[in-house]
Every structure is written in C-alpha cells, then in structure tokens.
Amino acid sequence: MSDALLQVKDLTVKFNTPHGKAAAINRLSFDVRKGEIVGIVGESGCGKSLTSRAIMGLLPPSVAEVSGSILFDGDDLLRKSDKEMRKIRGNEISMIFQEPMTSLNPVYTIGNQLMETILLHQGVSRKEARERAIDMLKLVHIPSPEKRMKQYPHELSGGMRQRVMIAIALSCNPKMLIADEPTTALDVTIQAEIIDLLLELKEKLSMSIIMISHDLGVIAETADRVVVMYAGQAVESTDIDSIFERPLHPYTQGLLKARPTLEEKKERLETIEGSVPNSHELPAGCKFHTRCPFGRPICAAREPGLLEVNGQGVKCWMHAKEWNDHDE
Length: 328
Prior knowledge:
By secondary structure, the protein is α/β, with parallel strands linked by helices. The chain has 13 helices and twelve strands. It has helices at 48-56, 82-88, 100-103, 110-122, 126-139, 145-149, 158-170, 188-205, 216-222, 240-245, 250-258, 297-301, 322-325; strands spanning 4-17, 20-33, 37-41, 64-72, 75-76, 93-96, 176-180, 208-213, 225-230, 233-239, 307-309, 312-314.
C-alpha cells in the first residue's frame, strides 16, 4: 500500500520457556497509513503491548526471537542495528507507556526529562532545548509551563503526568506515536481530556497513531481502523464503523457484548467464558475455539486462514465454505 507509513508483515515473537519456545505473537500483519489512527484491541495477554515493543525494538535478542518484517517508511526495523534504532526511537517513532508515574524518573525534574530527549535527537543547545520543552508543555495545554519545568513527577496529578509523557513523546515531532493504554490509570473526565488532546495533536502534527487499548470505547472515539488481537494473532481487522455495526469474529462479538452501554440497561454484563491461553499452551486449530459458542469439529482440527468478507479481514471458519462441509 503506497500510503502506508508502517507495514507489519508476519511478525512473530518467540520466548524460551521451561516448556520450550513459545510464540507470544504469531504471524501478525497489519499496516498504518500516513495520518491515520489504528486501534489495537483485545484482552490482557493477547499481545498488544508486546507488539508495540517489537515495533520500537525494545525486545533484546537474548530474551526474544523476533522474525517477519516491520517496514517503516520502507525500511525494515528488524534489520536495524541498536545504534540505528536509538536514532529512530523518540525521533521518528515515539511511545507513551501505560503508567506515567513509573515511566517518568522520580528524581529528575520535568524540564530535565523533556530536554534530555530533545538534546539527544535534535542537536540543539541547552537554551534551545529549554525553549522547545516549554513550547511542548504549552502544546499539551499544561498551564504555567515555566513553573512545571522545575517540578518533579510526584508534584503533578495523574492527568498532568500523562500530558508530560505526551509532550516528551512529541518533542521531536515524530511521524508515528504509539499510545499504549494512555488512559487506563485515569478517571473518566481526564480520560476524555487526554483522548481529545491526542486527536487535536494528531491533526496539528499530521502524524499517525497506534492506539492500544482493552477499552472499545476509547477505540471507538479515536481510531479510523481497528485490529482485534487474540492469543498473539489478528483475528479481525476493518474500519471502525464496520467493527461495531457488523463484527464477524465471535471474539469481537463477545467483546462488544461485554461492554456496558447507556442505551441498554443490563442487570449483569455478558462475559466471554474462560481466559486467554498461555503462549506455551495454545490449543490446536483456531486459538479461540475453546471459548467459542459456535465451535465445530473443524475449529479444533485446523487453524483458519485470514479471509476477506465484504472488505473485512477475519480469521474464522464460520465465513469459509468449509464451515458447512464439516458439520459432522
């Protein structure tokens, strides 16, 4: 795709375990176009955050075996050296981590941490770096930025710390931002403010965003397209409207049924029975078949390929011609 900024192709991440090698991510493929937001959604343990760390080159070879390709602006990030990746991280691709209190260094001021990234990548003087840091705090709507530069993380609220993290991530004007659960630890009012801020900055800076979340509400408000992950695989991918209007995979349907809504009052929320399997205990066939209410023998026997149904990508036997041929 000519307008794709990022193309992830057959990404596989394996770890050594006492049970042998386990594929925590297995042949994951998706792309992110220039100027769009792609949401990655799924339960905890599905491989969402691991995917982001693989893209950022934060999985040491001594720990993880990473294969496939991650093309960023046409260059394969998996073929880059550590030195080359250090130039890309924070400069061309930035990331906001889940919990700002643990991501920010408690013994350095906000100003020092902002200036560190700018000095590392931009080759400017300390005076210019300070001016740039103050401008970034203004950009993310932090009041009294000169005062905040002298403060430490513990002196700021959770929402303010998250804004600082966004300012640090955007301080070098990256082409892509990866936001890993950016609103999880915040109350709903601050969540809405952070979402609005990210959307505003995306338009101002013309950047692409990967929005990682277990919250379908956050994905609905932000994403243009969405990738649904389960057990390290993409089980469904499509535009944001289609995922809510006509979800094709039983896992996606289960996620949508389990979310609370204002329109429909329920005494008890629906749940998806069971839990995400461990990467070293993955079932044969479709990885979701042990939890699926529609499972048939073919689901346990063979793993489905990725099918295209009315423009939606889905990995499920229900949409293959073999579905009715294996009803024994």
